[in-house]
Design brief:
This protein is α+β, with helices and mostly antiparallel strands and about 425 residues long. It contains 12 helices and 23 strands. Helix 1 runs parallel beside helix 10 and helix 7 packs antiparallel against helix 8. Bound molecules: adenosine monophosphate and glycine.
């Protein structure tokens, strides 16, 4: 119906992921005008930002109706799990993302684990508990490392990797006792601890057809050599030389396709972007987690290499026509480095003026904003992860060199970043 028409688009979210999505969507031949809610200071250079929170579902719907938005794209998981897709569709508004029942793949780890068990999708062994004492007893009878996970959404912080049972009991106390993640901790999943490199796979699916983007790798820990606490992600790169074509096909055949088929069989057809987090274990690839949306910061790298029209593919996804889309990527490499506020992921300062954003970066280097604000024309820090610098080049090695030349042009008080992003890829 919308084919051939220029569209008014609304992107929901405010991070580096949404800035990269806006950047890519603006290249679409189908785009008329683009809005972002709430956006950030960098997104405001590329889209009309409107001050509506990503979780204000009613406010977003009212805006979409008033502004005659043709197509809405949801960045973060919270509104998806809250049912924004169901709300928009019930009001005749087109929206990209899984509905509430399908988003449960990310919204409940217990649901995702039982689903994988039922459809024989490889993942870590697990047990689910709703009773603290039973969970503690289980942990006390267990040797070696374990992973304790809050069932519900916890802003990416709900998985605690525990080297021994003492740490696991303390994780249970935090999650189930002190409720540090709130209601998300009413139930826990205790998992076998796996080892291996992590890979993120993004697939568009209309519930039947699939289109895969290039595999990427996130860097979750705050410090070099994967030391220190987990963060939202400190950098990413694509493609991943760890995954040769045969292994990629094996992951699609044994994990991603069975997931989409299984969700259809469950009466929860999945439509949108499926993010499958994989660990390459000595026993083969296994699922770490599903996310019901694009990853951050992987998107900032992955979309740089995507040649196809993302908006066209997203509309085809929503219309069940994804089989018509041929997705192509450039054969270059992309590396994204996150510049964060000192102290993150713990306490950090805000309102630090950012220097260097007016620099003319090399061709193939882009700066996507995350936690920034514009105060009277001055960009200031406004979050833990502040900026993403991304470079595209012929090889991972040359993209690494290029991205750090860009990173070094930007500074603010207490800025911090990892200096080893994508180095693992050079071992292959
Ligand atoms: P999740 O939120 O489930 O993706 O977990 C966050 C991070 O915790 C993952 O990216 C891994 O680094 C780590 N993790 C989660 N589950 C496991 C597991 N079963 N074994 C080892 N590490 C894990
Ligand atoms: N990069 C991890 C995530 O988006 O959940």
């Amino acid at each position: 119906m919308l084919k051939g028409n220029k569209m008014r688009i609304l992107v929901i979210g405010s991070g580096g992921r949404e800035h990269a999505l806006v950047w890519k969507l603006k290249q679409s031949k189908m785009l008329d005008k683009i809005f972002c809610a709430p956006g950030n200071a960098g997104i405001a250079l590329d889209a009309d930002c409107i001050d509506i929170a990503a979780t204000d579902l009613k406010g977003l719907l009212d805006f979409a109706i008033k502004e005659k938005i043709d197509f809405t794209i949801v960045g973060p998981e919270v509104p998806l799990v809250q049912g924004i897709v169901d709300l928009f569709e019930a009001n005749g508004k087109r929206i990209f993302g899984p509905n509430q029942k399908a988003a449960e793949l990310e919204g409940s780890k217990a649901f995702a684990k039982r689903f994988m068990e039922k459809y024989e999708i490889p993942t870590a062994d697990f047990t689910i508990f709703t009773d603290f004492n039973k969970a503690r007893q289980f942990v006390n009878n267990h040797q070696g490392p374990m992973v304790v996970k809050a069932d519900g959404l916890a802003a990416g912080k709900g998985a605690i990797v525990c080297p021994d049972k003492e740490k696991a009991v303390s994780a249970l106390e935090q999650i189930m006792g002190q409720k540090v993640f709130g209601e998300a901790g009413n139930k826990v999943v205790i998992e076998e601890c796996m080892t291996g490199e992590e890979i993120s796979i993004f697939s568009l699916t209309d519930g039947e057809h699939l289109v895969h983007m290039l595999p990427s790798q996130d860097h979750k820990r705050i410090s070099n050599d994967d030391k220190g606490p987990n963060t939202g992600g400190m950098g990413a790169y694509t493609p991943t030389p760890q995954i040769e074509p045969r292994l990629f096909q094996n992951i699609i055949d044994t994990i991603v396709e069975p997931t989409v088929k299984g969700m259809a069989l469950e009466g929860r057809p999945y439509r949108g972007l499926l993010y499958t987090g994989i660990m390459l274990t000595p026993q083969g690839p296994k699922v770490l987690e599903y996310n019901c949306r694009f990853g951050d910061p992987e998107t900032q790298a992955v979309l740089m290499l995507a040649e196809s029209d993302l908006l066209e593919a997203m509309v085809a996804t929503v219309e069940g026509r994804l089989g018509e889309i041929r997705w192509t990527n450039s054969n270059k490499a992309a590396v994204c480095v996150v510049i964060a506020s000192g102290g993150y992921p713990g306490k950090y300062e805000k309102d630090r003026p950012i220097i260097g954003l007016d620099y003319t970066f090399e061709p193939g280097t882009y700066v996507f904003h995350a936690g920034t604000k514009n105060v009277g024309g001055v960009f200031k820090t406004n979050g833990g992860r502040v900026l993403n610098v991304v470079s595209v080049d012929e090889t991972i090695k040359s993209a690494i060199d290029k991205v750090y030349r860009g990173v070094r042009k930007i500074t603010f008080d207490c800025a911090t970043y990892r200096t080893d992003i994508a180095k693992k890829a050079l071992n292959y």
